[in-house]
Amino acid sequence: MQVKCNQINLQHSRTATDNLMQIIDTENVDIALVQEPYLYQGKIKGVTRKHRTYSYVDGKRRAAIIIADNTIDALLRTQYSGNDTALLEIQQGNENFYAASIYMDYNESIDITFKCIEKILTFTKGAKMIIAVDSNSRSTAWHDRITNHRERMMEDFLASNHLHILNEGRTTTNFQSSRGKSNIDLTIANSQMFANIWNWDLSEEESASDHKIIKFNIILDKVVGKVPEPPGVRFIIREHQQNEFYEKCHYIASTVFQIENRGGNEDLDEELNQKLKENPDIQEFTKKLEEAIQKACKRTSGNRNTSQPKAKGKTVPWWTNELKIMRKKTNAMRRRYQWTTSNQALLESRKTQYTKAKTEYQAAVRKEKTRSWKEYCSKTFPINSWNEVYKLASNKT
């Protein structure tokens, strides 16, 4: 059983919220752990109505959790939640675990957050626990470039409470603005949950925020000592198809690695072994070999997707192909900017290009959403004067 999770600081941005809703819909995300959600008149806004949003009821809320999967049961533990903390008890099938979204204010004493987490750990003792936190803390322990006194306190606290940081080293950071870049967004698990977290990574999708989207999966039916079967596409090769599969695999691998297509599988194995020794990039070699095997599988047999994505309606009706293209363009601009390291002039040029593309994308999202809303209002109002638009305007929904 798999739960797909996203983590992001939305910086109170409506555009970043709209963008996240579209990603949740297209990527079948189950849970989003959010810091600094978009607020309007003290309430969290912009979340698709069929999703459930959990946060503390009073004050300026800077932590929330969004549940997009209606098969997940969730209960907000209000006695352990606050303006900067949201703690959920989650039930998925026969499995139970806790999830917390936490925002750490840099201007407040770090001990305040420590006391809050200690109370949560005491309450959830023995249960699986995942924590998504904007720590506003930098440390080489989570692949940042510097460490200071505040962050050393954070390191000591995590170690003393047997909490594990899941962040992995990446060429890019999870926060980047005009003021600099760093890894301040942390994904933390206790010992009971640690082995259940898989595929932690930074999303390549544009977030419309200075913070990148963090994504990871929770595998709930993991058996201790057994590596779970990775979710995704599985190929079914019947016994009578094995010879056909071997032939196709032999042909495709020979073509990809430029090996003379002669001899049997043992000869091919020796040739591949020699190619591997000659290739300095083992990761690239492995990727090519994996792609060759998958192609052979596809040509031999049908496949089935074991991740079984949930059927969802179009929850983001204003999303268009033009926005999709603009987001891809913005993603490409960001990657070009981030990968430029040696040429300072080129770095500044690509930074300007990325900033311009990001601004244009955010403006296009706002424009298209407004246009879609106006079109909806003009179509529905003449039919029934007491329709959804009236209910929204009168705050009756």
How would you portray this structure in words?
This protein has 397 residues and is an alpha+beta fold. It folds into three domains: 2-219, Endonuclease/exonuclease/phosphatase (Deoxyribonuclease I, Chain A, 4-Layer Sandwich), CATH 3.60.10.10; 233-305, no CATH class; 321-393. It has ten helices and 18 strands. It has helices spanning 14-26, 110-123, 149-160, 191-194, 242-256, 265-278, 282-300, 321-339, 344-380, 388-393; strands at residues 2-9, 31-35, 39-40, 43-44, 52-54, 63-67, 73-76, 85-92, 95-103, 128-134, 163-165, 175-177, 180-182, 185-190, 197-202, 214-219, 233-235, 303-305. It has a six-stranded mixed β-sheet with strand order 5-6-2-1-16-15, with no helix packed on it. A six-stranded mixed β-sheet has the order 7-8-9-10-14-11. Strands 3-4 form a two-stranded antiparallel sheet. Strand 5 (52-54) and strand 6 (63-67) form a beta hairpin. Helix 1 (14-26) crosses helix 9, helix 5 packs antiparallel against helix 7 (282-300) and helix 8 (321-339) packs antiparallel against helix 9 (344-380). The longest helix has 37 residues, at 344-380. 32% of the residues are buried. Residues 223-230 and 303-308 have low confidence and may be disordered.
Q: Taking Cα atoms only, what radius of gyration do you get, to the nearest Å?
A: 24 Å
Class computed from helices, strands and strand pairing: alpha+beta
Mean pLDDT across the residues is 81
> How far is it from the N-terminal to the C-terminal residue, by CA?
34 Å
